[in-house]
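Q: Predict the bound structure with biotin.
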Amino acid sequence: MGSTNPNSKAYEEAVDSRDSDAGPDAETGMEIASDAEVERIYVKLDRRIIPALWTLYFLCAAIRSNVGLALTMNSSTGDSLSQRLHLSGHQISTGLALFYVCYVVFDFPSNLIMSKLSPHVWLSRIVLCVGIVGACHAALSAVWNYYLIRLILGIVIAGMWPGMAYYVTLFYPPSLTGKRIGYYFTAAQVSAAVVSLVSAGFQKMNGYGGLVGYEWMFLIYGLVTAIDAILLLWWLPDRPFPPGESRKLRWYYRYLPRQVPALATERDRKVHYEEMTRVYHAPPWGIRDLGKVMLDWRIWPLTVMYFGVVGVGIGVQNYGTLIIRATNPKLTSVQLSLLFAPIWVMDLIAILIAMPLSDRFNKKRPFIFSFGCTVQIIGLCMTTFASAPWTRYGGLLLVGFGLGPTTPNVMVWTSEIFSRRHGEVGVAAASALVSGLGNLGSVTTTYALYTGWASDNVPGPRQYRKSNIVMIAILATSILSSMVLKTLLHFIDDKNVEDPQNMDRAAIREREREERGLRGTRQ
Ligand SMILES: O=C(O)CCCC[C@@H]1SC[C@@H]2NC(=O)N[C@@H]21
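A: Predicted complex:
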């Protein structure tokens, strides 16, 4: 069981020894599940949930970033989005930034609605709207509707990323969530790596049926995403509920496809219930609970951590090809696309290595995060200050590798800290606040740096130097913030936790329940 407490090993051993006692559980009368049985249940949930989240994230990430490709697609025939709409560099970055402004504003309300409604329905709603708005990009005809569509896309997609993290915490205990978040986070990296290659195919469709290449691209991605949204409604499991207890059906359930339960047998559901008691009796929350979460100081260091890593991640995603071209102006656009993809492959490899480690050594999450930031700083220094083009490009590969463990680690650390202190509403609100406010980092890097910083955008060996240095500075601030939080948690939170060796089984169980937000809800 995951815990951020001091002596967590001793605590976990004490909890485990409870579970290994022979005979039925005194509280439930149920035959106690072996570790292997519990493991099997999580494997079943994984098969059901992770590929579905992966697919939805891949499609939404592709739709969000396709606009960048559309700006230059088929430019040799004058059919790119920027040519047809006569967009200036400033207008392009304004549109990109407007999207993130909505992310900042609407992440939080979206996640709160999600925790009040059925999470899987809300996730499907997000995906459906992203599909429809994505397809509408094909109809762009003026600068004002480019701005408007980016705003609307930001509004409808807000809540997707923190919502997925929240959704995962409904099915898995904190010590198992990091790896899962990491798995579906790889979808964004695969998307970043492949969409530009796929766009080459769409460019070949330029002129078919009177549509240009980017219009085909938006329509097809939009259609596939909308179909995926409908499938998700049927496929993604609803929030778990106590075995034997009937679900309170909301009015909209009448219109939804009938679901196949994720866990088919009553026994599996009971064992999962025992493992994840928090989610079955999600205590109703009100404004006061929400206020407590929002006033919790722990939000701020986590937000600063996220600000740095998401800002740099999105900055590299939006301007990576420009940064590569600045290191070697002779590269063609095809070569640029080919060199861009390995950055995300490095990111993906790092996620797959680091996130299981982060779960295994969950007390070390801030150090894994800081390691990732340090690697990015080293990479950015190479890209900025080295003179050989390939060394500078190697620096970007290091940035990709360093990015891998950072974003998912902040999300999982946030849910760990807030689930323990505030229960389910804590996870929903805190992950949305950290992601939402942290995306001010994306607004900063897309709007104010690179093409948005006129004096830094002058071709030559020093091009983008100042922007890169700002990125190094915000990463250093993220590291500092994670260390400050780790230290404060050590002195403030961990001091109040009783040594598990001195607790009896009932007290351990009660504490586990409290950490999951169940204070006083069990009869
Ligand atoms: O809002 C989200 O979807 C979560 C953060 C996205 C960060 C992007 S995904 C591609 C690139 N790789 C990273 O590690 N960060 C950025």
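A: The radius of gyration is 24 Å.
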